């Protein structure tokens, strides 16, 4: 009887399931369905296609090598005949995303690769845009979704080493150089012109091959990752400063962070090392990124107070527009029609699991609200037994940063205890790296109010000096940059107010390439309400900003009070109280900087489904494994595919086009830590996973 009753109940449930359409996943606000444009499906992320294509195609000042050289470079690794061999013809082999033909692109170069024309001399370069690293493809069945602001599958080290190999091959192979020179110079070039081209290419190769060699990691990064800090420090310290000994082999690759919500966070980078609280620091953050992807800065002691800045290739105005456009970007909503429907029952149960286990660090951003600031939580890697500034600095410099001692010695001595088990290599490297400052030793950036660089200084300080000097240079050369930063009524790329004479908004194009008559409107306007810079007590923000700019324009020398203090310091054998106070203040600031960098950032998880692999270093292939104890996560897994696995939510391990094996035993690759799901039942994990799809 009981069995019969169960049969009837089960049959009724099945009939009801057939008769009624399953409920849709919760959608707090209306979301447009995926839209197919060309070969790709785009999700509703609050960008028009014109805005998206502008993001893909706008230069930021990246200059890898002369554009005509890059387009002419043959490649011995390809199977095509030499005359038909072009290095650029299949950059998807390095994981970069194929471009679709449109009014913005001829489809030859991948997304994020552009021709950069230097406004100073008209020279053309091949460069990278933000989109090269921050646009991702995910394929489910025969549909490929292009996710704006997500991580690329590109292999940056593979790309630069491939360029270096192709140049070396061209220089050493007579037939290859003949093909190259005909493409660059034409068929009627003289021998003298060919010899000159060979010499210039050889000079480039010597410098670029040295950079690649110095950037070669102990173990390969693979796709979707780069050691961002060490690569930037190598570029600035070894190439821009021209001090080869400043280079180190990068050993702490991190995933390319996803961009939605990032521009509204108070700190940038996985370790929160870069402030991002106002318009000026946001511009500085982006300028530092440019210097890391082949932007150039002439770092030398300013010749006089009349040129207190550095010349660079940084395109500040484009970066300001880009920042505003990225502020409009929203996270992608799980695409039911492509990846399968969310289990609404499990997702509902998973919401309470999230509140109990995740929300204290990863805040929820409801989609029916517009945010101008994104909440984050910095998770310290270590607990300090003694937090006095002088002790923190001493332990940091003499133990943690000592290669012969390091973190194990600091723990054993009782100076620190481990608070967060995630691989600390990236954070420690960023905090410990020092650079010889060479030609800019003693230089103060910004002038007057900045701090002079020491002979050997923290790499983050040297980078800040380089970025600040480069940005002052852009203000000096183009005063409209300052106007854009100071105009608090300006809302960015979506601004439709009456233009003023200094306005130079981006040209939005249609799919046919014609200039649009009007700026496209967003579905949600995210106005940048941040100030130009943090206010000075007792002074309005604009007044403080204007005063700073006047000082820069006037190239004012240090005040008489500062000069007198410096003279007094040099004449006395016993430091004055003022000097002691200044040293204590500097030590306290350094201790605070050290502790802030030795942490990892927890951010809201909206759109997290589209950002595999997980952890700051990409060491976990899917969201399901993120909820397991570290001992049960994959010790090795495969990367490189665009194929998406919607059940466990992450990289499809069964895909044939995975090209790289990720080994979590390698330094910098450890998948330990973040075990907040370890105590859950397996049913709770699957419930939580369904809920994460709805964020």
Automatic annotation (TrEMBL):
<dbReference type="InterPro" id="IPR009056">
    <property type="entry name" value="Cyt_c-like_dom"/>
</dbReference>
<keyword id="KW-0349">Heme</keyword>
<protein>
    <recommendedName>
        <fullName>Cytochrome c domain-containing protein</fullName>
    </recommendedName>
</protein>
<feature type="domain" description="Cytochrome c">
    <location>
        <begin position="345"/>
        <end position="468"/>
    </location>
</feature>
<dbReference type="Pfam" id="PF21419">
    <property type="entry name" value="RoxA-like_Cyt-c"/>
</dbReference>
<feature type="region of interest" description="Disordered">
    <location>
        <begin position="553"/>
        <end position="572"/>
    </location>
</feature>
<dbReference type="InterPro" id="IPR047758">
    <property type="entry name" value="CytoC_perox"/>
</dbReference>
<dbReference type="InterPro" id="IPR036909">
    <property type="entry name" value="Cyt_c-like_dom_sf"/>
</dbReference>
<dbReference type="InterPro" id="IPR051395">
    <property type="entry name" value="Cytochrome_c_Peroxidase/MauG"/>
</dbReference>
<keyword id="KW-0408">Iron</keyword>
<keyword id="KW-0479">Metal-binding</keyword>
<feature type="compositionally biased region" description="Low complexity">
    <location>
        <begin position="557"/>
        <end position="572"/>
    </location>
</feature>
């Amino acid at each position: 009887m009981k069995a019969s009753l169960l049969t009837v109940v089960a049959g009724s449930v099945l009939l009801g399931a057939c008769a009624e359409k399953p409920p849709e996943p919760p959608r707090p606000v209306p979301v447009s369905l995926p839209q197919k444009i060309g070969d790709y499906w785009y999700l509703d992320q609050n960008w028009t296609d014109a805005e998206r294509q502008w993001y893909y195609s706008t230069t930021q000042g990246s200059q890898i090598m002369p554009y005509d050289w890059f387009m002419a470079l043959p490649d011995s690794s390809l199977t095509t005949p030499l005359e038909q061999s072009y290095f650029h013809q299949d950059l998807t082999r390095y994981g970069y995303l194929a471009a679709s033909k449109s009014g913005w692109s001829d489809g030859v170069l991948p997304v994020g690769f552009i021709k950069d024309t230097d406004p100073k001399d008209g020279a053309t370069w091949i460069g990278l845009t933000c989109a090269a690293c921050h646009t991702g493809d995910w394929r489910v069945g025969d549909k490929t979704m292009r996710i704006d602001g997500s991580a690329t599958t590109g292999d940056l080290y593979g790309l630069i080493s491939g360029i270096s190999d192709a140049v070396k091959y061209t220089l050493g192979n007579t037939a290859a150089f003949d093909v190259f020179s005909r493409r660059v110079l034409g068929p009627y070039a003289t021998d003298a012109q060919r010899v000159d081209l060979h010499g210039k290419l050889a000079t480039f190769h010597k410098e670029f091959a040295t950079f690649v060699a110095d950037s070669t990691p102990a173990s390969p990064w693979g796709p979707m990752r780069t050691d961002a800090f060490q690569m930037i420090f190598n570029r600035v310290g070894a190439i821009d400063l021209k001090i080869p000994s400043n280079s180190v082999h990068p050993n702490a690759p991190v995933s390319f962070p996803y961009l939605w919500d990032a521009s509204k966070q108070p700190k940038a980078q996985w370790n929160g090392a870069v402030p991002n609280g106002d318009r000026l620091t946001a511009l500085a953050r982006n300028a530092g990124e440019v210097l890391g992807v082949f932007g150039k800065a002439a770092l030398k002691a300013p010749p006089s107070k009349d040129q207190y800045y550095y010349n660079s290739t940084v395109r500040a105005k484009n970066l300001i527009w880009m920042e505003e456009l990225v502020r409009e970007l929203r996270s992608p909503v799980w695409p039911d029609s492509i990846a399968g429907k969310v289990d609404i029952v499990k997702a509902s149960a998973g919401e309470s699991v999230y509140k109990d286990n995740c929300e204290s660090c990863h805040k929820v951003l409801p989609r029916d609200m517009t945010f101008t600031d994104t909440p984050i939580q910095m998770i310290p890697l270590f607990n300090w037994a003694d937090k006095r500034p002088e002790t923190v600095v001493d332990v940091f410099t003499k133990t943690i940063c000592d290669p012969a001692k390091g973190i194990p010695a600091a723990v054993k001595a009782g100076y620190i205890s481990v608070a967060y088990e995630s691989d600390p290599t990236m954070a420690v490297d960023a905090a410990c790296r020092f650079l010889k400052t060479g030609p800019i030793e003693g230089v103060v950036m910004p002038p007057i109010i900045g701090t002079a660089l020491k002979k050997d200084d923290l790499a983050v300080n040297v980078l800040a000096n380089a970025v600040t000097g480069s940005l002052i240079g852009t203000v000096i050369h183009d005063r409209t940059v300052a106007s854009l930063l100071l105009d608090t009524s300006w809302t960015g790329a979506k601004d439709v107010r009456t233009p003023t004479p200094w306005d130079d908004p981006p040209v939005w194009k249609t799919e046919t390439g014609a200039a649009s008559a009007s700026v496209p409107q967003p579905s949600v306007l995210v106005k940048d309400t941040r100030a130009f810079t943090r206010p000075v007590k007792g002074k309005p923000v604009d007044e403080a900003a204007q005063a700073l700019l006047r000082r820069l324009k006037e190239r004012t020398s240090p005040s008489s009070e500062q000069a007198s203090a410096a003279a007094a310091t040099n004449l006395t054998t016993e430091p004055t109280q003022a000097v002691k106070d200044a040293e204590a203040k500097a030590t306290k600031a350094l201790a605070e900087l050290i502790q802030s960098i030795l942490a990892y950032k927890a951010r809201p998880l909206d759109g997290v489904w589209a950002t595999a692999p997980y952890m700051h270093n990409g060491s976990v292939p899917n969201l399901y494994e993120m909820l397991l104890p570290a001992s049960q996560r994959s010790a090795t897994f495969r990367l490189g595919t665009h194929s998406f696995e919607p059940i466990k939510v992450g990289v499809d391990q069964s895909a044939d086009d995975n090209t790289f094996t990720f080994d979590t035993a390698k330094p910098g690759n450890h998948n330990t830590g973040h075990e907040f799901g370890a105590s859950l039942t397996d049913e709770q994990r699957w419930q939580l996973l369904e809920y994460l799809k709805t964020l």
